[in-house]
Amino acid sequence: MKKLILALAALLLVAVAAWFLFFRTPAAAVPVYGLTVVSSHPHDPQAFTEGLFYRDGVLYESTGEVGTSGIRKVNPQTGAVIAEEQLPAPYFGEGVVAWKDRLFQVTWKDKAGFIYKADDLSPLGSFTYAGEGWGLTHNDKALILSDGTPTLRFLDPETQAVVSTLTVTANGCPVRQLNELEWVDGEIWANIWQTDLIARIDPATGKVRSFVDVGALGPKPRGQDNVPNGIAYDAAGKRLFVTGKLWPQLYQVQPGTATVASPAAEALTSCTP
Ligand SMILES: [Ca+2]
């Protein structure tokens, strides 16, 4: 009987050890991929890019800094400005998004958003929101707003009221500094401020599925200002464009398939509960 109990105890021990080994092993770190450049195009090196998206052959760009903020339509091939509307002081322009025939632009700390006609950028009105405004994009139901925290807000496009929120995590760690946003084939892509990383976020869970490292692009060294910021996706043409604040180039890129080492991603995916 004793032998049987010992055998059962040993079996239990093995089972528990196996369970820990196979099921309790910490999740693998989030993979980081490089990219290849398909083409590069001129970009206004005076544009402090805070928002960027593509629609019907045109890039829409929002710029920041008090005094140089505004919204513009740009030829993606040449960088030529097609139309422009300035955002005067004291406002600091941030993200921009289109919903039907209107554009919505947020500002950094002014809690004020502005609405424009998409075709000629003529001002239509304003709206307010709590906290800060960083990036904007949309899915088929809502505008999506980042504010520097790990929480994305989903806004009703008609009322701009918050309808839901999503906390973004990578390997279980909250991801802060989510900046310019883009909806790309069912994922939310986000520049992470002061890094070369773009997070690819599962919109159902908030989990970062992978990172794209854009460190190969843009001016060096990176200062406080000239960081990557700006993701635009041509869904019909499957073309992905990225740029940065004060960058002289806009790049069409293709994410790579091989993982790369990234100390920044290691830092983002390491946290203590
Ligand atoms: Ca964007």
From TrEMBL:
<dbReference type="GO" id="GO:0016603">
    <property type="term" value="F:glutaminyl-peptide cyclotransferase activity"/>
</dbReference>
<dbReference type="InterPro" id="IPR015943">
    <property type="entry name" value="WD40/YVTN_repeat-like_dom_sf"/>
</dbReference>
<dbReference type="Pfam" id="PF05096">
    <property type="entry name" value="Glu_cyclase_2"/>
</dbReference>
<protein>
    <submittedName>
        <fullName>Glutamine cyclotransferase</fullName>
    </submittedName>
</protein>
<keyword id="KW-0808">Transferase</keyword>
<dbReference type="InterPro" id="IPR007788">
    <property type="entry name" value="QCT"/>
</dbReference>
